[in-house]
Amino acid sequence: MQQSKFITSLSTGCFLLRSILRWFRHFTAKRHYTKNASDKGVKPQMVIMSILDKFTSKNPQQIWSASCEVAKCNNLELLDSLAVDIIAIENATKGITLGGALCPNSYHLEFALKKLRYVKNRAGCLCALYSEYMFFNPIDEEKNGNITITEIVKIDGKWIDYHICKCNKCHVSYKVEERGGHFAFWSWIKA
């Protein structure tokens, strides 16, 4: 009887934690307004300065926010403008403890810096970075016009096993598997 109560309370606690994390992800993931900034009446220069100000603020929360915005951004004009200041951003963020719980917030900063270097070096299509960052949700990427989901493979016709996605710019295909634990993340592998 005691064990049954413990298991019930444990599963309730896990459910609550997952609900809180989903709520948090819902409100943080959708705050990225940089994809089509010029389409939304926001002047790109204002967005660039806002992100640059966040990176150089020395405030861990602001740095994390700017990192997430750059990570999800596919506006090359905006990324090019930020990439010019990559050294200033690196210097401003060096040595700052960003915190984080299940995933360190420095993960987002490291990826944002990698993405800006990639853009600055004109290394290729941004889809090549999908495998470098575990928070690229294929459904969101399709909604943003970056990819097309060409196939959804299911297990027993019920559960999604993986997606086959194709980049809308360079037409490279990826096999995308959703993974999870305390939060959802995705693995992108060239198909």
Overview of the structural elements:
The chain is an alpha+beta fold. Helix content is 47%, strand content 16%. It has helices spanning 2-29, 44-55, 60-72, 76-83, 86-93, 106-120, 138-143; strands at residues 147-155, 159-167, 173-179, 185-190. Strand 1 (147-155) and strand 2 (159-167) form a beta hairpin. Helix 2 crosses helix 4 (76-83), helix 3 crosses helix 6 (106-120) and helix 4 crosses helix 6 (106-120). The radius of gyration is 19 Å and the shape is globular.
Biggest beta sheet summary? 4 strands, antiparallel
Q: Structural class from helices and strands?
A: alpha+beta
Structure summary, number of beta strands = 4
Count of helical stretches? 7
N-to-C CA distance: 50 Å
Rg measurement, Å = 19 Å
Q: Which residues sit in consecutive blocks of at least 5 with pLDDT less than 50? A: 6-14, 21-42
Shape: globular
What percent strand?
15-25%
Question: Which percent range fits the helix content?
Answer: 40-55%
| Cross-sheet strand order for the largest sheet | 1-2-3-4
Mean pLDDT, rounded to whole units? 82
Helix-strand sequence: HHHHHHHEEEE
